[in-house]
Amino acid sequence: MSSKPISGPHTAVSRRVDQIMWLVIKAMAPAIACGIFLFGWPALYLLATTVAAALLFEAFSLKVKGVAALPFLRDGSAIVTGLLVAMTLPPWAPWWIGVVGAAIAIVLGKHVYGGLGQNLFNPAMLARVALLISFPIEMTTWANVSPLFTGPGVIESLGITFGSLPNADAVTGATTLGYVKTEFSQGRLLPGSLLEYSGFLAFIGWERGSLGETSSLLLLAGGIWLMWQGVIKWHIPVSLLLSIVLLSSLFHLLDSQHYLGPWVHLNSGAVMLVAFYIATDYVTSPNTPLGQIIFGAGCGMLIYVIRTWGGYPEGTGFAILLMNAVTPLIDHYIRPRIYGRYRNGKPLDISNS
Amino acid sequence: MFALFENPRLRGGIHAEEHKTETSSLPIATDFPLPKKLYIPVQQHVGKPAEPLVMVGDKVLKGQLLAYSQGTISAPVHAPTSGTIVDVKDFPAPHPSALPIRTVVLESDGLEQWAELNVVEDPFQLDPEEICLRVGAAGVVGLGGAVFPSAVKLSLGRKNKIHTLLINAGECEPYLTCDDRLMQERAAEIVAGIRLMLRGMDAPKALVGIEDNKPEAFAAMREATRNLPNIVVSQVPTRYPMGWDRQMLRYLTGQEIPADGRATDIGVVVHNVATAYAVYKAVCLGQPLISRVVTVSGAALAKPQNVEVPIGTLMSEVLAYCGLDKAKMARLVMGGPMMGDALPIAEVPVVKACNGILALSHADIEEPEVQPCIRCSSCVTACPVGLLPLEMASRIKVNQLDAAVDLGLKDCISCGSCSYVCPSNIPLVHYFKFASGELVKRQQAEHKAEQTKRLIEDRNHRMERIRLEAEAEAQRAAEARAARLAAQQQAQQAKAEGTEKTAPGVAAEETA
């Protein structure tokens, strides 16, 4: 028996950080597997490189910080970050894109702020935006869907990831959002430019896009499972998706030639990934339910605005970073009401009760 | 998790592993062997300690007054059995510090001879004041753990207009089943106690809230109140801390007690269900509070069960009765696991506040390392008060106590929900208790500084006054001397005038 005075509760632990991280990894696994299946061995190589780099940079940062690295490496947060970075990359991107992405996410996005739980911005989105601005060609070269065993082989794929992309034009194309944006710039309007678009294929993920972003179906399933497991709450995903749906429906109804409909928006780009796995990042989102709803709605609005009127076809990364920057402000103003007090902190009036 | 909208009456809270089935199906053991020696602390309640009126060597009877209550907020202590007072000394208290407090040591004679009990024919005809007096004289205190003298609460209720007596039978702490068993076995007596309380406060109705994981107790209480329309027994959801009186009140009535007020401010008084039983015993049987039902549970015990134990029994004896395996016990806890105190030794007495003695094994209290906060806000969701535990803890960590107070530190009820759900195993409640302690310390230091300042000022004033008085005295003396001198001179002058004619030169010299 110890005689050190210990405060309660005197109970077993309910859930630990590493368990949460593994649940998140499990939830993302189907979407990642789908990405590897759709885009073949290069996707797998890129994913492995990115995660390995993330772990190495984590270990390096912890060593520089002067703490024992092993307990932190075991918590799985670096793996989650590595996976998320990889999921947002074009599947046939060269290996160094993954490594640079992991470095930005882990070193600049996380440890410069003080490590786990201290960062202001979502590391994966920081990496994505930094890469997009720095390496626009590599970050917008989208491989065609070429399922495992029908595309390049195991050895040939090594050349794609660790060498250079041969015959790029033959095997790549634009994403739906990028294509529509280009068509607009050439004066071609909507129903026409979407003739080849299949809402169903986009939903299950059979389209060009980032490694782990294409399958709305699997991302949604994983997200709902995470909610059911109690890892994330409904507030951010629902408000984020709902604000996109509302805005896109409104403008689509007003002018269907210039504005994409809600289905295209929901199933394109990183919306599903962001709604369930990125915007819900504990560290960079508000604490309170109301704050989370504001945060989610803000993300959704910014995504729509950047996509529709901005220079980039996809705006999720920027939207998340902007809302991350607002999170401390939201947390400052949105606080739960304390029992027996009004929202402003004054005690309840007896005569009112 | 899919609860889209929280019930506004039921905020936060957690559902920990209950561990209640081990003891809830067994009857209360009433055959606990009478200990040879009982250690009865004179302070077992909130307020001033009682003052012993027995001497070493005195023979006392069961139920006889050992120490009388001092002041308005206090409670007397009675002899749990008959025997001889062998000592009145300082003895380790059932407190995490195990610091000694004043304790009456009673050696039992094994005769269990009752003192003469003051029983009335029909207690329900007693005056309300008389009921309060009897409850106070019997040393009844809140048995839910707060141990506030019940008579004070009843009198307070009589002075304010009370519309509802809330009987708290939540028993939301894991492991604890003493209230559950009490309701299952002695519902009629509890209801009698509730009726007496209602009469003592002139209150019209009572609400009894029982968590819905105690269906047998609920049925028994329903049955016992079948013909009493003014006592409503309701089920409340099983969600810790349902037994927080303000939470239960909000759930059952929708009312909230203002942060700076008490329940009486909104016309409610809350009593624990075991207190109602003690009130019954005090008023109907004339028996003071000298024993209580204690849940003895935990994985280190062979026979976990509820035991009726005389106040003052050493916990080690109770644990031995329940088959303690000392090697398995990793921690001894008084109360429930969420809010109870870890005790360093088992050789401390059972007191009125003690509703549970838990001998927990290593598996029950696994303690992984503390990790950094990942701001998952589980603690925000779990907090029944509506605080931001993670923010408060981060302020306290860097010693910004005022910032923590601004965030609502003083509204924290130390229920431990935040610590329980924290995936990083951060001891949040520990931080809050520490900060509250620091605030008290700071307040005391401020008080002391003020006192010192006042003393110094007083001293300065005093010295000034003394100086002024001395000066005045000196002045008076000087004036007196001057006056004397003047008088002498006058006298001399007069004398000189008499002789002037004879010697004018001398007089002229003198006056010059």
From TrEMBL, chain A:
Residues with the FMN phosphoryl threonine modification: T175
TM annotation in the entry: 20-38, 95-113, 235-254, 260-278, 290-309, 315-334
The keyword Protease is annotated on this UniProt entry: no
Entry's EC annotation: 7.-.-.-
Family the entry assigns: Belongs to the NqrB/RnfD family.
Subunit structure: The complex is composed of six subunits: RnfA, RnfB, RnfC, RnfD, RnfE and RnfG.
Task performed by this protein: Part of a membrane-bound complex that couples electron transfer with translocation of ions across the membrane.
Protein name: Ion-translocating oxidoreductase complex subunit D
Species of origin: Methylomonas aurea
Lineage, uppermost ranks: Bacteria, Pseudomonadati, Pseudomonadota, Gammaproteobacteria, Methylococcales
From TrEMBL, chain B:
Mode of membrane association: Peripheral membrane protein
Residues spanning the membrane: none
Main location: membrane
UniProt cross-references to SUPFAM superfamilies, sorted A to Z: alpha-helical ferredoxin, Nqo1 FMN-binding domain-like
Note describing how the cofactor binds: Binds 2 [4Fe-4S] clusters per subunit.
Claim: Metal-binding is one of the keywords in the record: yes
Residues the entry annotates as binding [4Fe-4S] cluster 1: C373, C376, C379, C422
4Fe-4S ferredoxin-type domain: residues covered: 366-393, 401-432
Compositionally biased tracts (Low complexity): 483-496
Keywords noted in UniProt: 4Fe-4S, Cell inner membrane, Cell membrane, Electron transport, Iron, Iron-sulfur, Membrane, Metal-binding, Repeat, Translocase, Transport
Annotated segments matching region Disordered: 479-512
Localization: Cell inner membrane
Annotated binding of [4Fe-4S] cluster 2, by residue: C383, C412, C415, C418
Annotated EC: 7.-.-.-
Obligatory cofactor(s): [4Fe-4S] cluster
PROSITE patterns: 4FE4S_FER_1, 4FE4S_FER_2
Role played: Part of a membrane-bound complex that couples electron transfer with translocation of ions across the membrane.
Subunit structure as annotated in this protein's UniProt entry: The complex is composed of six subunits: RnfA, RnfB, RnfC, RnfD, RnfE and RnfG.
Family to which this protein belongs: Belongs to the 4Fe4S bacterial-type ferredoxin family. RnfC subfamily.
Protein name (record): Ion-translocating oxidoreductase complex subunit C
Species in which this protein is naturally found: Methylomonas aurea
